[in-house]
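Lay summary. Proteins are chains of building blocks that fold into shapes, and those shapes determine what they do. In this project we predict the shape from the chain. Here is one chain we studied, written as its sequence of building blocks.
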Amino acid sequence: MDSHIVNIHAYRTLNKIKHKFFTKPYFTGLSIEECWSEKFDIFKDRELFVHVGLGGFCKYYSSPEQATKILVNFLKAQLNPVSLISQSFTPSFRRSGVYSIEHSRAEIGLFAEQFRIISKFRTNDPIHGVSYITQRKDKFDNIDYHDTFGEAGFYSSLYDRDAVIVNLLTGRFVSTYLHFLEEKYKVPYKRKNVIYSGVVYSTSGIYSVEQKNHAELYPVEFNRKKIYNLLLSKGAIVEKSIQGRVVLSMVSVKLMDEIIGNILTKNPYFLVSF
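And here is the predicted shape, written in a compact code that computers can read:
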């Protein structure tokens, strides 16, 4: 990996550390029932890609483990999802070149790690993998997991399945599908087809991998507020607020793609701030 990409990742890592340690929890002491509304029933029987700010529940529930199990069971009971999916990212693979499907911790987000522990399945993408619980018989087979944001990759499949992006007490709009949109609409600030080499440990053995991902050509950050407000103005987002602050939102991947894609064809820098 060249020094330019290393510097970009260092910049992003520092920003994530600042967000983690210098940002107060969005809400504390809430229950999942307080965040719910019957208007989310329109998303029953769908694939749910879930992001959770678990700190908002930790004062209400006794532990992160208990909170995660309760949240998962609640979503199952309310929406009967075909699949529950959560990020299980291991960006350290870019440096270490080592990934264990079974043992590598999810490195971004407390909920992501707790969900990984209770999930039955995890994909073999060594950087942007996901953990999931599913009723699907194919269990997300026939996907090219080694081209993360490619047309045959996992994130592309979310469009085909019309998955739903869920943000619960995250305090901001979070969705890795935005990176897929950057790839799909060929934004100029990304370096495409960056290869990260390493090994993957699986239950069936060890194998070498050439993981195709992408990297920023220069530091940018998603303008999450602008993205969220656009989707909200188009009627794509369903949300629940408490005291004027959004605690839960859901949006269809297909609607995201159609709305944002239409703008990216005209303004390829729409998603980001410099």
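What the prediction tells us: Residues 3-266 form one domain.
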